[in-house]
Design brief:
Length: 265
């Protein structure tokens, strides 16, 4: 049993029954349930990350958190799955030529490692935003998110990735945030979501959502601090290497006022 569930049970029981419950856990008959050593985080820490790569994803929504998590992967075991519809390179290019009026060829591609149909086991799904969030053609992404969400330990959205998750219905009833520059159009995608502003990021149980693009980097650092053994030291060391000043207060969000987003939730 996970240590968090044990704590939860403790709160519900009287002190005496909680003690008996703890003793029953240390009895050899249920030896497998004993949490390892003094470490309360490592046995629960998510190890398998999937990044969704919809057409016209925002580059930094993916590579910001990926850079931070890769630093973590040098300190603890992590696995990465890059997910898309097919194994063809996933492009940041606009879906329609009309969205590329200067005919630029400035769109990198990323090679996926799994298709949605492969449905590899993952603990965390990271959904980036970008022009992707406004694509009229997100059917396979939405189907995959709906299918995988119940199996996840955590869902993380970056920027307008919250709009994609909202379209899949998985943010319904959750507190969540998104890019304040795209607030009206993204929040309209999830009328049942408790949209939070101001917020650099919002944690609500298994659902973590960030504000615009670079906020995903601060979310990733906070996630490491909370979910991994020695996470604070790892996050601070990695931030030093990146020369990134972490925003540590989730309410620290000047963009909310800048884009006239009303205070909510
Ligand atoms: C757009 O650019 C490509 C090269 O990147 C070129 O082949 C094509 O003719 C251009 N289209 C227009 C309408 O200018
Ligand atoms: C914690 O992480 C820091 C930064 O990566 C590292 O220097 C230190 O050795 C780690 N401590 C433990 C106990 O793992």
């Amino acid at each position: 049993m996970a240590p968090r569930s044990i704590l939860f049970l403790h709160r519900k029981f009287s002190v005496a029954s909680a003690l008996l419950f703890s003793l029953s856990l240390i009895s050899p008959a249920v030896g497998g349930a004993i949490p390892p050593r003094s470490d309360s985080k490592s046995c629960n820490s998510p190890r398998r990350f999937g990044f969704l790569l919809p057409r016209s994803f925002s580059v930094l929504d993916v590579f910001g958190p990926l850079e931070v998590l890769q630093a973590l992967s040098r300190q603890t075991h992590l696995e990465l799955a890059l997910l898309s519809r097919t194994l063809d390179p996933a492009s940041t290019a606009p879906v329609a030529a009309g969205m590329n009026k200067f005919n630029s060829s400035f769109y990198p591609t990323v090679v996926p490692t799994y298709t949605y149909a492969d449905d590899p086991p993952i603990d965390v799904l990271v959904i980036p935003g970008g022009a992707a969030a406004r694509s009229p053609d997100l059917g396979p992404e939405i189907d995959y998110i709906k299918k995988v969400f119940p199996k996840l330990q955590y869902l993380i959205t970056i920027c307008t990735g919250a709009g994609i998750a909202a379209q899949a219905g998985v943010l319904d009833g959750h507190r969540a945030t998104t890019n304040k520059a795209a607030w009206a159009s993204m929040t309209a995608m999830g009328p049942e979501v408790k949209w939070v502003s101001p917020a650099r990021w919002v944690e609500d149980g298994k659902v973590w959502t960030s504000s615009g693009v670079t906020a995903g980097i601060d979310l990733a650092f906070e996630f490491i601090k909370q979910k991994y053994e020695n996470g604070t030291a790892i996050a601070e060391s990695a931030a030093g290497s990146l020369e990134h000043t972490i925003i540590t207060d989730w309410r620290d969000d000047p963009w909310s006022a800048r884009f006239n987003v009303p205070v909510s939730n």
